[in-house]
């Protein structure tokens, strides 16, 4: 008990799980009341022989409530301070990334044209490139590193910036984001048409009013994501994972590729008629092309791509 009390007072115990500290504090306080009440009741001169545990608890309820209130206010204050510090850190990371990317692009523009081309005969695509091969490697490293650190909304800002700058677009993106950490990414009302990001982890992503027309997202993971008003017309999502994904008002075309896509059992696609605001539910057979092969499974384990598939490049 003494060890637990010291740990609670030091604030080191249960710092990662505050509820443990609250439970132990309450138990420690009640135990302390029991010990003190029993000890004092042994003395006749105290006049407390007839006081029961509940009498003592009623007597000390106000101090206990004040103590818990102090604990709670301190916890709220610490949580708010941590959130503010984390938000400031995230914003600084984003600003630093944009600054470095802008520096790379401006440096390329100031170089003589001949120095901005790889050795050999330049192609038309190379002439149009914003970044040289060396700068592309640097930009890729910067982008993958910052995506590992940022939260969902700020990841969305990074990807939107790259798409609008035509740095991750087909047929040969200047910045290859294969296997990028896009977990929890938030994208809303953006045009991502023609982007190429293979094997991206978009677990728990939230996409609303997003155009992914002619995009290549082969072998990507959308597990537990929410996709609403997403246009996949002409998009390639072969061997992607849509396990436990919420799909509403999804648009596809006859050229959309969903070969060997994995869905959870019972997956349906919710569609709302704009004129009547009526909701209809489409089965997989209604949603996809008749010649599309799909894996429908009860567990996410069967949706994970094999090492052989991961080794393939599109």
Give descriptors for this structure.
314 residues, alpha/beta, four-stranded parallel sheet, three-stranded parallel sheet, 8 helices, 43% helix, flat, disordered N terminus, disordered C terminus
What does this structure look like?
This protein is α/β, with parallel strands linked by helices and 314 residues long. Helices cover 43% and strands 12% of the residues. Among the domains are: 2-41 and 54-86, no CATH class; 178-314, no CATH class. The protein has helices at 2-10, 18-41, 53-110, 124-127, 133-149, 152-164, 284-287, 307-311, and strands at residues 186-191, 206-211, 226-231, 241-242, 246-248, 261-264, 269-272, 279-282, 294-297. The strands form 3 sheets. Strands 1-2-3-5 form a 4-stranded parallel β-sheet. The protein has a 3-stranded parallel β-sheet with strand order 4-6-9, with no helix packed on it. A two-stranded antiparallel sheet has the order 7-8. The chain is flat, with a radius of gyration of 29 Å.
> What structural class results from the helix and strand content?
alpha/beta
Report the radius of gyration as a whole number of Å.
Answer: 29 Å
Number of strands: 9
The termini sit apart by 61 Å
The poorly predicted ranges are 1-10, 115-126, 274-281, 306-314
Shape: flat
Reading the helices and strands in chain order gives HHHHHHEEEEEEEEHEH
């Amino acid at each position: 008990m003494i060890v637990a009390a010291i740990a609670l007072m030091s604030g080191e115990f249960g710092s990662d799980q505050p509820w443990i500290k609250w439970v132990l504090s309450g138990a420690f306080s009640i135990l302390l009341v029991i010990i003190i009440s029993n000890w004092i009741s042994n003395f006749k001169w105290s006049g407390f022989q007839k006081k029961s545990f509940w009498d003592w608890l009623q007597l000390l309820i106000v101090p206990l409530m004040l103590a818990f209130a102090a604990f709670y206010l301190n916890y709220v204050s610490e949580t708010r301070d941590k959130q503010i510090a984390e938000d400031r850190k995230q914003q600084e990371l984003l600003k630093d990334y944009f600054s470095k990317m802008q520096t790379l692009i401006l440096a390329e523009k100031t170089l003589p044209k001949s120095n901005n081309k790889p050795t050999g005969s330049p192609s038309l695509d190379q002439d149009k490139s914003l970044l040289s091969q060396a700068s592309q490697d640097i930009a890729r490293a910067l982008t993958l590193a910052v995506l590992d650190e940022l939260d969902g909304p700020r990841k969305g800002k990074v990807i939107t910036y790259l798409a609008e700058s035509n740095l991750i677009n087909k047929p040969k993106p200047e910045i290859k984001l294969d296997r990028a950490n896009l977990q929890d990414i938030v994208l809303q009302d953006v045009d991502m048409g023609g982007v190429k990001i293979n094997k991206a982890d978009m677990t728990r992503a939230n996409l609303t009013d997003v155009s992914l027309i002619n995009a290549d997202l082969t072998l990507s993971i959308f597990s537990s994501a929410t996709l609403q008003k997403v246009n996949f017309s002409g998009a390639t999502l072969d061997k992607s994972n849509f396990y436990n994904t919420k799909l509403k008002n999804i648009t596809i075309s006859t050229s959309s590729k969903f070969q060997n896509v994995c869905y959870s059992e019972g997956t349906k696609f919710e569609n709302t008629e704009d004129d009547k605001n009526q909701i209809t539910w489409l089965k997989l057979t209604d949603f996809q092309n008749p010649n599309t092969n799909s894996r429908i499974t009860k567990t996410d384990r069967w949706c994970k791509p094999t090492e052989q598939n991961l080794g393939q490049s599109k």
